[in-house]
Structure formats: structure tokens, C-alpha cells
Amino acid sequence: MASISSSLETLFNINNVPYGIITSNGEQKKRCATVLGDFAVDLGVLHAEGIFHGVPGLDGNPFMRVSLITQTLTVILAAFRAQHTLKQDYLNVFAALPKATHKAVRERLIQHLSQLGLVSTSKLPAGFMPLSEVKNHFPMDTRNFT
Q1: Domain Fumarylacetoacetase N-terminal, which positions (predicted)?
Q2: Residue range of the domain that includes 64
Q3: Stated pTM of the model
């Protein structure tokens, strides 16, 4: 049995929810993830499972409306961003979301991860993979920064 609960004996416990970009063995597609204990957690998988439903900026609800003329475009753009935010190659789009969104994502993650407890490493929850099977990548695209 391997613990994916809130063990305080590891740097990456329920009180420290870092964000990063990973690829897993045999895959080239980069994706947003966090770490809990000895496991990487694919945030795109959790998003697809509805863990972040209702979080502004991640559920298709626009978090900013400028005018009636641009409202429809804003809704479409927000829905597109929400669908793809946690499946990006970098964290730039997620980082640009409001602090309220970051807080809500963190709270949902902590709530979800706290409920998991002990699981067998042969049957991990969706989105979980051993850290030994992932490669970390630079989390931000900084090519246009000077």
C-alpha cells in the first residue's frame, strides 16, 4: 500500500500543493500537474472528472466581461480557455487567471486529495502516477520575456 493522503512526512503533502508541467513515460504531450507524496497528479484528468466544476475561469463561466458587444466573444473565449487551461504545455494561462480561481483550485484539490486515503499502487485513482514515471519540465513559457 502507498499513502497518497496528507502525510506530513513528505515535502509534497496536502499542505503544499505545487503546480508544474510533466510528461509521463512514453508520452510527448506536456500537461499541468501537482504532486502529492510520491505521486504526480494530472490536473487535466481531474478537470475532466469534474473536480473543478464551478470554479470561475475553469468551468466555461467568463471571469471578465467588458461590454455587451464583446460579451458573446468573451463567453466563447472563456469556455475555450476553461476547456484547455489545465491541458496546456505551460502554466501561463492558469497563472493569468484571477487569484480567486487559484484559491478555488487549491481548495478543490485539497478537498479531493484529502478524501483519497490509502490506495494500492497497482490501482491508482485517475490522473495519479508514480513520480518515477514522470519527467518535469519548465512550468512557464518565458520566450517573450526580457
Answers
A1: 15-139
A2: 2-137
A3: 0.75
